[in-house]
Amino acid sequence: MTTAPLAGRLDGLLFFPVTAFAPDGSLDLDTFRAHVRAGVDAGAAAVFACCGTGEFHALTPEEFRDCVAAAVEESAGRVPVVAGAGYGTALAVRYARLAEEAGADGLLAMPPYLVVADQAGLLRHYTELAAATSLDVIVYQRDNAILTPATAVALARADGIIGLKDGLGDLDLMQRIVSAVRTEGLDLLYFNGLPTAELTGAAYRGIGVTLYSSAVFCFAPDIALAFHRALTTGDDTTVDRLVDVFYRPLVELRARGRGYAVSLVKAAVRRGGLDVGGVRPPLSEPAPEHVDELVLLVERGRALLKETGA
C-alpha cells in the first residue's frame, strides 16, 4: 500500500545507474560508487541499482549484493535505494533478500524469466515476492508481464506492493489500470518506464503518471533535470524544444541498434569522463559513429539550455 515509507520518498527524477566493469570484465565497485555518488550529488531523487540499465541480467548474486550495498553506502540515506529483482519466483526472492540484507529501501520486480504466464501466475509471483521480505515492491510491466486492470487492482490490495512501472507504452491500458485502481478506492504509485521516458512525459502526465526513470540522467544530468523542471512547472516551450532538439533524435538513434537502451547509455557515460567499462554479453558495444552522434546530441542539448537559461 502507498502508506508505506518508500512511497512518500519517491518524488523527483529517478536515477538508474549503469554497473561499472573493469577492463577484465570484473565488477569495478570504486567506479560504480563514483557514478552513484555523482548522481546523488547532481540531484537524483532515488537510486535504482542493478535494474535494466544496470545490467541486472548479467550480474551474479554476489555482485548484485555488493553493488546494492555500495549504492546504499554512497546514498547515505539522502535518497532511497531500490534494487532490481527478477527471474523465477525462487530466484527473485533470493535477490530480494540479498537486497534487504544490503540495506535497500525497496525492489523493482522485473518480469519473470522466459515464460509467458497468465494473470493468476503473475499475481502469485509478485505477491509471493512481496511477502518474502519487508521491502516495498514496484512491479515492472513490460514484455511478458502485462497486467489487466483487474490484476493491477489485486496487486494494489496486496501488502508490500506500492507501485507499477510501465515499460509497455500502451496509454489506453494504463488509463484503464489507473481508473480501475482508483474506482476501488485503492492507490498505487505509477511510473513511466519507457527507455527514454521524457519523450512521452507529457502524455503520461495527462493520465496522472508523473514519475519517470531517466536514462539521460546517467550521462547528462543537467539536461535531464532541466527537462524535469520544465515538465513539472508547465514550461511547455522548453519541453517542446528539448524534445525536438534532443529527445526525439535520441530515441531515433537508440532505435538503430539492439540493446542500445543500455549499451549506448553506458558508452555516453564513458565519453563523459567516467570509465564504467563495456557491457557484458549478450549485449554488444554500440557502433562508434553512433556514440559520436550521441555526443553531438548532448552538445546540442546543452547549447539549448545555455540559450534558453533552462
UniProtKB/TrEMBL annotation:
Keywords recorded for this protein, A-Z: Lyase
Principal EC category: lyase
Pathway of action: Carbohydrate acid metabolism; D-glucarate degradation; 2,5-dioxopentanoate from D-glucarate: step 2/2
Residue intervals passing through the bilayer: none
UniProt EC number: 4.2.1.41
The family this protein is said to belong to: Belongs to the DapA family.
Protein name from the UniProt record: Probable 5-dehydro-4-deoxyglucarate dehydratase
Organism field: Streptomyces zaomyceticus
